[in-house]
Specification:
It is a single chain. This protein is α/β, with parallel strands linked by helices and 277 residues long. It is 47% helix and 15% strand. The chain has a 4-stranded parallel beta sheet with strand order 2-1-3-4, sandwiched between helices. α1 packs across α2, α4 crosses α5 and α6 packs across α8. The longest helix has 27 residues. The chain is globular and about 70 Å long.
C-alpha cells in the first residue's frame, strides 16, 4: 500500500478547522470535449447508474459518449457565465460568502464530486495547510445514494489512501432544517413581492429512477417533507402548490409527477400563472 505523501511537521498546533462544501460538478468548458470528459466520470459512477457494468459500459462508451456531449455542450453554452460554469461560479460565491461570515472560526473551501476541484484534491490541500478537522457538507438538502453517498465514497477513498487521516465529520442531509426552509421561503416571498402571487406554486426537485424508492432510498420522502414544510411556511392551501420532479434520463420510469407533464396539465386546466421553485 502506498499512501499519499504527508506534509512536513509544522512544530505548531494545527490551524483552524475547515468546512468543505461539496457540489455535484460541471464541465470545465461548454465544449464537446470537456462535456464528454465530465459525462464519462459522472455516468461511470455506479451510484448514479446502477445497471451492471458489463451491460452499461459498452452503451456508455459506444453510444452515449459519442452522441450526447455535442448536444449537451450547446445547452451548457446557452447558460454559461462570462466567469465560467454557473454551478461553479455560484458555488464559489457561496464559499466566499460563508468564509467571510465565519471569519477566523473556520476555513471554507469547495469541491465537486465530478470535475474540478475534486474532493480528493480539496481534502489533500486542506491537510497540507494543517486543517486536521474537516466538516464535509454535501450541498444536497435531501439525501440520495446517487448524490450524498457518492460524495462520501470519495471522502472514504481519500481516507483509505492517507496515512495520518484528519478528523472528518459529515452532514448527511437537512431537508427539514428550519434555516433551510426559511431560506427557501424568503426567496419565494421576495419574488412574490416583486411580481405578485401565482395561481399555483410548483416545487420542482431533481428526479430519480422509480426503483430507488423500492430499494430504500429516502430521497423521495425527504423531498415531500421539504415541500410540505415550505408550503406551511408560505401558508399555502393544498390546492395552491404541487410537488414535481424534473431531469429524467434513459427509458426507465422515474419518480412522478414529472414537472413538464404537470405544467402541461395546468395549461389544459386553464391555470394562467404558475411559479416554479
Amino acid at each position: 500500500m502506498h499512501y499519499l505523501p504527508e506534509p512536513k511537521p509544522r512544530g505548531e498546533p494545527a490551524t483552524k478547522p475547515a468546512i468543505l462544501l461539496v457540489n455535484l460538478g460541471t464541465p470545465d468548458a461548454p465544449t464537446p470535449r470537456a462535456v464528454r470528459r465530465y459525462l464519462e466520470q459522472f455516468l461511470s459512477d455506479p451510484r448514479v447508474i446502477e445497471i451492471p457494468r458489463a451491460l452499461w459500459l459498452p452503451i456508455l462508451h459506444g453510444f452515449v459518449l459519442n452522441t450526447r456531449p455535442r448536444r449537451s455542450a450547446l445547452k451548457y453554452a446557452s447558460v454559461w457565465y462570462p466567469e465560467g460554469s454557473p454551478l461553479r461560479v455560484n458555488t464559489d460565491r457561496q464559499t466566499r460568502a460563508l468564509g467571510a461570515r465565519l471569519g477566523s472560526v473556520a476555513r471554507v473551501e469547495f469541491a465537486m464530486r465530478y470535475g474540478t476541484p475534486s474532493i480528493r484534491d480539496a481534502l489533500a490541500r486542506l491537510k497540507f495547510e494543517g486543517c486536521e478537522r474537516v466538516l464535509v457538507v454535501p450541498m444536497y438538502p435531501q439525501y440520495a445514494a446517487s448524490t450524498t453517498a457518492s460524495a462520501l465514497d470519495q471522502v472514504a477513498g481519500f481516507l483509505r489512501d492517507t496515512r495520518n487521516v484528519p478528523e472528518i465529520r459529515f452532514v448527511k442531509h437537512f431537508p427539514d432544517h428550519p434555516a433551510y426552509i426559511a431560506a427557501l421561503a424568503s426567496l419565494v416571498q421576495a419574488h412574490w413581492r416583486r411580481s405578485g402571487r401565482p395561481d399555483k406554486l410548483v416545487m420542482s426537485f431533481h428526479g430519480l429512477p422509480r426503483y430507488t424508492v423500492s430499494q430504500g432510498d429516502p430521497y423521495h420522502s425527504e423531498c415531500h417533507l421539504t415541500a410540505r414544510l415550505l408550503a406551511e411556511r408560505l401558508e399555502l392551501a393544498d390546492d395552491q402548490w404541487q410537488i414535481a420532479f424534473q431531469s429524467r434520463f434513459g427509458r426507465t420510469e422515474w419518480i412522478r409527477p414529472y414537472t413538464a407533464a404537470a405544467l402541461s396539465e395546468f395549461g389544459r386546466r386553464g391555470i394562467r400563472r404558475v411559479d416554479v421553485v
